[in-house]
Amino acid sequence: MAKEFVKGGHDADVNTQPDAGVYESNPEETKAIMRANEEDFIRGLIDAAGFVSEETQRIEIIRDKKLYFAFSIRPLSSEEYEKCRRKYTKYVRNKQLGMKMPEDTNKVKYHSALIYQATVDSDREKLWDNRQVWNALNAKEDRIINGLDVIECALKAGEKDKILEAIDRISGYEDNLEEVAKN
User: Fold this and answer.
1) Residue 119 gets which letter from DSSP?
2) Which DSSP category does 118 fall into?
3) Phi first, then psi: what are they for 7, rounded to 5°?
4) How many helices (H) and strands (E) does the chain have?
5) Which of 19, 48, 105, 112 sits at a 20 to 30 Å CA gap from 94?
């Protein structure tokens, strides 16, 4: 039995959440549903595409109950993940196949690049790309030449792992696949 969709409507007597699920309909019913909800679908698509600039999450680096610094991250697109991975993967030519094949990924640089890329622009400038920070760390004989070096120097390995988990979560990678399928 096909479910009747009404633009902007819902079943008030059941709950305020719209029904989600798979409904069978013939081609004419499908066209009617699409026409009736076209504006909502278009608005939803446009709103969903704005995820990169609108969603953020605050990350606080706290050690021994002391807040050292904080910054905000945003979701990464698949292209941004891939760009970071490609940049820090070493490729070698396979003579038998006649093409380049990935040999090894520098995971330390790759993870730092993901954190750097996910950091909102204003915080990236204040923290990772701040020349004062670079100069102070270089005075301690650390070799800081870019923002990734600051990330590697300032964050502990476990902190980086937790930040990467937060980036994955805000980017839509969920641990619970059933929940994703329902949404």
Assistant:
1) B
2) H
3) -55, 125
4) 9, 4
5) 112
Mean pLDDT, to the nearest integer, of 69-91?
92
Instruction: Taking residues 16-43, report their average pLDDT.
Output: 69
Please report, for the domain that includes residue 85, its CATH number. 3.30.2220
Question: pLDDT band at residue 47, thresholds of 50, 70 and 90?
Answer: low
Residues written for the chain? 183
Sign of the C-alpha dihedral computed for residues 139, 140, 146 and 150 taken in this order: negative
Q: What is the dihedral of CA 7, 13, 17, 21, to 10 degrees?
A: -80
74 by DSSP, 3-state: which? coil
Under DSSP, is residue 133 helix (H, G, I), strand (E, B) or coil? helix
Q: How many CA atoms lie within 13 A of 82 on its CB side?
A: 3
Amino acid at position 107, single letter: K
Percent of the chain with pLDDT strictly greater than 90: 48
Write down the pLDDT at residue 31: 75
In a domain, 9, yes or no: no
Residue from 111, 149, 110 nearest 128 by CA: 149
Structural domains counted in the chain: 1
Interval 44-63 mean pLDDT: 76
Residue 127 pLDDT greater than 80, yes or no = yes
Identify whether the C-beta of residue 72 lies closer than 8 Å to the C-beta of residue 56.
yes
Cα separation, 79 vs 59, in Å, equals: 23
